[in-house]
Specification:
The chain has 500 residues and is α/β, with parallel strands linked by helices. The chain folds into two domains: 168 residues, 3-Layer(aba) Sandwich (Rossmann fold), CATH 3.40.50; 284 residues, tm_1862 like domain (pyruvate-formate lyase- activating enzyme, Alpha-Beta Horseshoe), CATH 3.80.30. It is built from 19 helices and 15 strands. The chain has a seven-stranded mixed sheet with strand order 2-1-3-4-5-6-7, with helices on both faces. Strands 8-11-12-13-14-15 form a six-stranded parallel sheet. Strands 9-10 form a two-stranded antiparallel ribbon. A hairpin with a 5-residue loop joins strand 6 and strand 7. The chain is globular and about 65 Å long. The chain starts with 8 loop residues before the first strand and ends in a 13-residue tail after the last helix.
Length: 500
């Protein structure tokens, strides 16, 4: 193994897709660029730090292959950037990062390692004590990583001056420092994504994102136009790295420069806006739309919105700019259940009206539903499925309720001593929605095994229904319909499912 001095900073996206998505990993699941790795790399360059990104997930390398490539680069600091394809998916990525880090420490103990991400920000002490890592970031990361590298280079006697850092002292005692400040001037301090360090030819869009061109899911990119979320939904952990709710924006001018680069240099057409809540601020949304429209790009974009943030003034501009999809959080068909998760300030009538309005502008809807929320029963979960079938949107995500670390639901579950993956010997992979070991919360009325079964049955019922397939044929043609039929032949294996 080489001892040649390498880069100051190596950002690693660990290869865990196969375990997280099972049979869906090969062809169906998207392959997302690691946005936070791209951000940190850009910040590092601006601060004179040499940096590289190793996206082992995109290549689906083995742990052994990935360790070899890390050692060859011999970084001063190797940071495992632990996020996922959706805002709450950091925890499901921990097993891969943890296993990889342990193997790296066995092969090259001299390489300093660090964990960052939503999960480690929510559970920094536990992450430091359970994983074979030297450091853990609590917070969004850039300042903590910069100052850790500075301390290593300067052979500082202690890391006590590094904000947001968890570490162990010479006696093995767990130590932590006050949080780092959040970046306020995003445009200036994070000057774009380090796209040139990413394997741009490897990324592919979600299958539904490309119903109109299902064989052209590449090239693809995803990016943030803001950080954080102003809402406090009990099932969401998105704000764990930010210390609470709130939102900061990149300027439309900054984002259009990113899109210009993606289009002109990388030929990207399919784009995901990964913001937890994009359709919110009029100046931000309409400003970006105007820039895209001025350029005449023919893009295929999707972004998240809430039922109560979709306004008439947005929809025409969004469609003109190429926003062909909006992801809408319906969550439950029961207003009583929605009220219990701080998402219920709207009724079924508003949901139907807003979705109809979106479709009137020729924008497709990806609706999100959750089974097993705290107040759910079999009857209310059936209400949710009935609403999904009635809405018959072009895509539907069906989730089990998870008490993600960093979410209010996790604190509630701990307080009530409800079964959690990390407490019941399942491990962090239990927080994956699609893994063999998926281990959601039970409700007062429904055991977790039945929540899993209900979710999987609902998926099959929805995507094999005549009404859905007829709509797909009418809107997208036989090629998309055949893709859906092949998709529904793939069955997830579930360790903890029990019959209804």
């Amino acid at each position: 193994m080489t001892t040649k001095p390498g880069v100051d900073l190596l950002l690693v996206n660990a290869p865990g897709k196969k375990r997280v998505y099972q049979v869906l990993a090969d062809e169906l699941a998207a392959i997302e660029p690691p946005i936070w790795a791209g951000f940190i790399a850009s910040f590092a360059r601006k601060n004179g730090i040499s940096v590289d990104i190793l996206d082992a997930e995109a290549y689906m390398w083995t742990y052994e292959e990935t360790v070899k490539k890390i050692v060859e680069r011999n970084p001063l600091l190797c940071v495992f950037v632990v996020y996922g394809q959706q805002p709450s998916a950091s925890t499901q990525s921990m097993p891969a990062a943890g296993d990889l880090c342990r193997m790296l420490k066995e092969a090259a103990p001299q390489i300093k390692t660090m964990f960052m991400g939503t999960h480690s920000s929510a559970l920094p002490k536990r992450t430091l004590e359970e994983e074979a890592t030297d450091f853990v970031v609590q917070g969004e990361g850039p300042y903590t990583i910069r100052d850790t590298i500075k301390a290593i280079k300067n052979k500082a006697p202690t890391f006590s001056g590094v904000p947001g850092l968890w570490y162990k002292d010479d006696q093995g005692k767990t130590c932590s420092n006050p949080p780092a400040l959040k970046i306020q001037d995003l445009d200036n301090e994070i000057p774009g994504m380090a796209w040139d360090l990413l394997p741009m030819d490897r990324y592919r869009a979600h299958n539904w994102h490309c119903w109109t061109h299902i064989k052209e899911r590449q090239p693809y990119a995803s990016l943030y136009t803001s950080l954080g979320c102003p809402y406090k939904c009990s099932f969401c952990c998105i704000n764990a790295p930010f210390g609470g709710s709130g939102i900061r924006y990149f300027s439309p001018e900054h984002i259009i420069r990113e899109i210009d680069l993606l289009v002109t240099k990388y030929g990207v057409k399919n784009i995901k806006i990964a913001d937890e809540m994009f359709v919110l601020n009029p100046r931000h949304v309409l400003g970006l739309c105007d820039f895209i429209i001025e350029r005449g790009y023919k893009l295929n974009i999707w972004a998240y919105a809430r039922v109560d943030t979709v306004k008439d003034k947005y929809l025409e501009k969004l469609k003109q700019a190429g926003f062909n999809w909006l992801g809408i959080g319906v969550e439950s068909g029961s207003k009583f259940v929605r009220d219990g998760v701080e998402k219920g300030r709207f009724g079924d009538v508003e949901i139907k009206g807003i979705i109809n309005k979106i479709r009137e502008h020729d924008i497709y809807v990806g609706a999100n539903y959750i089974f097993g929320l705290p107040d759910d029963t079999i009857e209310t979960m059936q209400e949710t499925l009935n609403l999904a079938m009635e809405l018959n949107t072009e895509w539907a995500n069906f989730y089990c309720a998870m008490a993600y670390p960093g979410s209010p639901l996790h604190a509630m579950a701990e307080q009530k001593k409800l079964p959690l993956p990390e407490l019941d010997g399942v491990g962090w992979i239990g927080y994956s929605q699609h893994a063999f070991e998926t281990y959601p919360l039970p409700t007062d009325k429904v055991p977790q095994g039945k929540v899993i079964t209900f979710r999987d049955n609902a998926f099959n019922t929805y995507f094999t229904s005549d009404s859905y397939l007829s709509m797909m044929e009418r809107k997208f043609g036989s090629e998309a319909v055949n893709h859906v039929k092949e998709m529904t032949k793939l069955k997830l294996k579930r360790k903890y499912a029990i019959p209804l």
